[in-house]
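Appendix B, record 7
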Amino acid sequence: MKILLLLILSFCYTSAVNACVQPVDPKEKYSEHTKRALKKLLPLAEEGNVEATYTIGLIYSYDNGIIRDFEKGVKWLTKAADLGKVIALNEIGSQYYWDRRNHNYKKAFEYYKLAAEKGDYHAQQMLGRMYSYGHGITQDIEQSIYWYTKQASHWSFYTIARMYTDDMVTLPDPEKALYWLTKAADQGNRRAQLELSLISEDEYYGDYEESCPQGCGFGYLSLIGRCIKRFW
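Structure tokens (predicted):
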């Protein structure tokens, strides 16, 4: 009888301990943190605080599928944009461009253009992409280059160089690809410099094999250089 009692007590104790140490689903914990944040942010947003309004829009737009709500995200981001938050226009554009369920190139283009005209760098780059592929607008390579070069960054130049080796965008043009690749390399773009090492003997660009023996982890690294060599 004593042995049976001890076994029962041992079982009960073990069950109690297991219940206490049972791991909490990280999604549930994350969701609780988010709900608490929303509880604090909502009153501020209702008072017209632009940062709180924008943050709520981001929470609904990107909250890892826990409480994600596309319509609410766009609603709050639109409010933030109305309060003068330019980046909110870019975020709305991204929602329409990348969201699988609510995908809409035309709306994405509309919001990206509004943000781009107000100086948002990412929106300008996305307009360059959309014009190059004809997403939501008639394909226009000149407009694509116009928006890509708005900020004259080395990444923009590198992207244009890639565009001239991508037959999904336009007819391959090795001379133009080399021109933009060189501009990117001259501004310090390491990928462009490594690409040029495939087609140039100039030590300025370094040796491709020595500088990047494993390809630096970039799946398409050396694509431009090889395309230029192939077309020449």
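Remarks on this record: The two ends are 93 Å apart (CA to CA). The chain is about 70% helix and 0% strand.
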